[in-house]
Amino acid sequence: MTEASLQALNGLRDLTMLKWYVIPFLALVIYIYVKEIKAGRKTGNFDAVFAGLTIFGIDFFNETWNGWVLVLTTRSAFWTAPGDTALRTMVGWNIEIMVMFLLAGIAWYHTLEEDKKKKILGLPNPLFWAIGYSAFSVFVEWYLNKGGLLIWEYPFWERTFGGIIQIFLFGYLTFYLGAWFVITRKTMKAKIITLAVIYSVPILMNIFGMGIMGWVY
Fold it and tell me: Largest Cα–Cα distance of the chain, in whole Å?
């Protein structure tokens, strides 16, 4: 295994790593979701909550298959996050990243125009903002990688034009497009079912990988 992989596995899900700033992080997430649910009860519109949970769920799937890559190659995942953290939950995931993705979808949703059909630069505004948020996220990842906090091991997933395009498409844009897909379902039932499918896939992957095969990633 690469040195970054070994570092990412060190202290994996070790609760002794917890730091006090996790508490205000969790309080902030709870507060924002409670506010969105309260607003949804008044208006009947829970799309901000669906957007937030969708993006987090897709990232959960991404981090799960990324862990499988480490197990199957016995070398490295596509990305690892070996740096200091309050809690490392997977080799490429930590509590700080999780909080970010829990809030990213809500932020994206509130950036959208009231009229979802309104266009910006010829693009539907949800797509325009999906591209914008994804580009900004890749910009941040670039510097996290440069600073050694987020390690990219493989040549097709690194700071090259081709690598950045892949990270843009599969690391972020699909997340926001997924959120757009969920909130445009016509019924609450359809939205809930779609969200349930998004979460069931990584949950089953983790049950198989960690429970049956005994994989730890």
Answer: 52
